[in-house]
Design a protein that fits this description.
oxidoreductase, about 90 residues, 2,4-dienoyl-CoA reductase (NADPH) activity
Length: about 90
């Protein structure tokens, strides 16, 4: 499961109203992931190195999932508030 990945449509939509700092502050590694980092995990999982891996959830999210829902909720709240303000203006 990927976390916030740089230059994806989803992150463009989430960061457009508030900027990327709100989201990078929510990630313990303090940065977005790159597509090649997710791709590297896909390569490992499709290789013989993962021949005994079944039914596993592999999270590639810079620690976002470990930081709890609070950081994600704060980032989402900021994004929603900014989006509502744009609609009202």
């Amino acid at each position: 499961m990927p976390g916030p990945i740089r230059e994806t449509e989803g992150m463009r939509r989430l960061t457009e109203p508030v900027g990327s700092a709100v989201w990078t502050e929510a990630v313990p590694l303090s940065r977005f992931g790159d597509a090649h980092e997710v791709a590297a995990m896909a390569v490992v999982l499709s290789s013989p190195l993962a021949s005994y891996v079944t039914g596993a959830r592999i999270v590639v999210d810079g620690g976002l999932g470990l930081s709890g829902l609070g950081s994600i909720s704060r980032a989402l709240d900021s994004t929603r508030s900014a989006a509502r303000a744009d609609v009202i203006d």
